[in-house]
Design a protein that fits this description.
It is a single chain. The protein is mainly α. The protein is 80% helix and 0% strand. The radius of gyration is 22 Å and the shape is globular.
Length: 485
């Protein structure tokens, strides 16, 4: 776990920095500098781009992780990487032509409840291309075991640029309309920087020597991953896409603030996955299942420890946090925060389950799981958003995540005889529940910021002290002993 823990730790720091800047943007700059209508609009456009992104790049970001380590010489690696860059064009060019022909119909469909969407519809396609190729070049660097710089560009750079743009709106240097287009250009710039960095790490010899010998396997994997990736992204983004189709677009802004706060809990997983996915792929390619199982259980426990602490810090302080935001209309998202927080904890408990399925011979099951999740969440959103509003969207996400996470755990255990939980998992969940029930009902009489600080310090000390004393995680104890002799 050495390289995993080291790069995961660095990536976690970057992600926290990115989320801190993003938190400033979402909780304060967007809510105070931009009208809720435009906040909802940019959220909708980026969510729509995210949903079509896996199709746009033909799933190549996952294909690179899966197959690169299986090639044993530079000639094969170069042929594979060049193919990974060119194959998405087989999707992009036909989609672009269809988009030109049917643009008006597509725009009118998306804008049927909120006319403001219509004039920006084409930006969804371009943003998806920029996002997709960024992920391709990011995967390119990750297979060289270099994930930190790309993570910085993805999580910090873009958010700093958006902060600057929001201040530009506040000082009337640009208007809300120009802000939307400027955000699209930020994603273009981010892609270019990632491309230059990836090429600096490894630049393939530019000569065409035919397709890789296993091209049929690559295409088969990519097709399944496209469908699974698209369906998986639907689970993450469909709520923000469907709310404007059923409610006023400003409600996307209220929902997005709640989801953003809760998504902080998923930071440790996002950090660890950057490096642990290629390592899991390598161990599976070498048939080293014992190491895969060790990574599986350690990742689940360590992610639950860090995520559990974040769950407590967020949810016992949530009302105070909304007091600081000081926008009454946004408080409808408090319930959203709690429900999405639980779904994030469930996802953390899976550990490397997704990496195991993606990089094993059972990867096709991801397609069926993802399709099932997508259909389920669309149906539940249609039912619950209509009756409960944005709270229904959060509940739909929780139900689908809980059900299909259980199915994934059962499937991996059945096929590979490994599961992520130990007796320590039950102890940890009991600790999280106990501290939540104790601190949630404590109401301090001070300023909201002071209340948050006092509660957070007490919870952090008690939680970390208990985890270390009970020796729930070897990695956690090693880190604590290193910095606190």
């Amino acid at each position: 776990m050495g390289i995993v823990f080291k790069q995961s730790f660095n990536n976690t720091l970057i992600l926290f920095l990115g989320f801190a800047i993003g938190g400033l943007n979402v909780l304060f700059l967007y809510t105070h500098f931009l009208e809720a209508e435009y906040f909802g609009l940019i959220t909708f456009l980026l969510s729509a781009a995210n949903m079509i992104m896996p199709l746009i790049v033909f799933g190549m970001q996952h294909t690179i992780i899966k197959f690169f380590s299986s090639y044993k010489n530079q000639h094969e690696q170069d042929s594979f990487l060049l193919t990974a860059i060119l194959l998405p064009m087989l999707i992009i060019i036909p989609l672009a032509l269809l988009g030109v022909v049917f643009y008006q119909q597509i725009a009118e469909f998306l804008a049927r409840e909120n006319i403001i969407i219509e004039k920006y519809t084409y930006t969804i396609f371009f943003t998806a291309i920029f996002m997709g190729y960024f992920e391709v070049f990011y995967a390119w660097s990750r297979v060289q075991m270099k994930s930190v710089f790309g993570n910085f560009i993805k999580e910090v750079f873009a958010r700093i640029c958006i902060s600057i743009l929001l201040f530009a709106v506040y000082f009337d240097w640009i208007d809300a309309n120009q802000f939307i287009y400027a955000v699209v250009l930020v994603y273009l710039l981010r892609m270019i920087i990632m491309k230059l960095y990836a090429f600096s790490l490894y630049f393939p010899k530019i000569e065409w020597n035919g397709l890789p010998k296993n091209i049929r396997e690559i295409l088969s994997f990519s097709l399944y991953i496209i469908m699974a990736g698209s369906a998986g992204t639907i689970l993450l983004e469909i709520d923000k896409f469907m709310i404007p189709q059923m409610k006023y677009i400003a409600e996307v802004a209220y929902y997005s603030v709640g989801v953003y706060i809760a998504s902080v809990i998923g930071i440790p997983s996002r950090a660890m996955q950057q490096i642990i996915n290629p390592i899991t792929a390598r161990e599976l390619n070498n048939n080293n299942l014992e190491e895969v199982e060790v990574l599986y259980q350690k990742s689940s426990l360590n992610l639950l420890i860090v995520g559990g602490l974040l769950f407590l810090l967020i949810n016992v302080n949530i009302e105070e946090l909304y007091n600081i935001i000081d926008r009454e209309e946004y408080t409808v998202g408090i319930y959203v925060v709690f429900v999405i927080s639980i779904s994030e904890l469930i996802k953390l408990s899976l550990g490397t389950n997704g990496a195991i399925l993606t990089n094993s011979r059972y990867y096709k099951m991801l397609f069926y799981y993802a399709i099932g999740m997508a259909i389920s969440v669309i149906l539940l959103n249609r039912l619950l958003i209509g009756s409960m509003g944005i709270q229904g969207a959060a509940l739909a996400t929780l139900i689908v995540v809980a059900l299909f996470s259980l199915l994934k755990i059962i499937y991996v255990n059945k096929k590979m005889k490994m599961q992520p939980f130990t007796k320590k998992t039950a102890t940890l969940l009991g600790l999280i529940t106990f501290l939540f029930l104790i601190f949630y009902f404590i109401d301090l009489p001070f300023h909201s910021l002071v209340n948050i600080l006092i509660k957070s310090c007490l919870i952090t000390f008690i939680f970390v002290f208990t985890v270390v004393k009970l020796k729930l995680s070897d990695d956690m104890n090693l880190m604590v002993n290193r910095y606190f002799k």
